[in-house]
What we know:
Layout (H helix, E strand, L loop, with lengths): L17 E4 L3 H11 L1 E7 L6 E6 L2 E6 L5 H14 L4 E10 L9 E9 L19 H14 L3 E8 L10 H5 L5 E3 L2 H11 L2 E11 L9 H6 L2 H10 L1
Parallel strand pairs: 1-4, 1-5, 5-9, 6-7, 7-8
Antiparallel strand pairs: 2-3, 3-4, 5-8, 6-9
Helix pairs in contact: 2-5, 3-7
Amino acid sequence: MAVPTPHITAKEGDFAKTVLMPGDPLRAKFIAENYLENAVLVNNVRGVNGYTGYYKGKRVSVMASGMGQPSIGIYSYELFNFYGVENIIRVGSCGSFHKDLHARDIIIAMGACTNGNYAMQYNLPGTFCPIASFDLVKRAAKLCEKAGVNYMVGNIFSSDTFYDDANSGMQWAKMGVLGVEMESAALYCNAARAGKNALCICTVSDSFIYPEENTTAEERQNSFTKMMEIALELA
């Protein structure tokens, strides 16, 4: 397939080697407007904003993924395989299962458990374990320590359902899973298949333990700046 792709109208070379990928297009816009110099809009198909600019002299892109594994699966696949992107860092929000994680704390997703079937396409004779790139995990942890933010490294649960009739979240918590979101497993699968690098950094927006701390949509869009800054420093 040549560029532009069915979902991205950018030209060849429009994306930097590293792309930050929030779920929300408005969070992508916020990052571009507040952190990138000379940011240029390179994609807006279906309102999925993609920008390329400079952060501390380094060329960086940011583009939204939308919600769910099928959505991030499409965008990350096209970026990795047709636009020459080497690293995708998801900067998302998540719900926390852990008593030591509160609103605005950070989860670095070393691995992604899932109830989805994204990896079935590879016809593997067993269960594939989607994991992050270790170098990105290690560097992200060091940046969290330097920034003085509370964080944990571990498994996250990528769910295909937001309204889960089985209420299965706390079952995953029994296995030490730190929190739940909806995208990382597909991103990690695509990175593995393409021989590229991926990491998910999530800010806790909601807590199964402390529901009184849950954040609003506007706060999720505009106030999770520590996560954004850590991801930009990684880039």
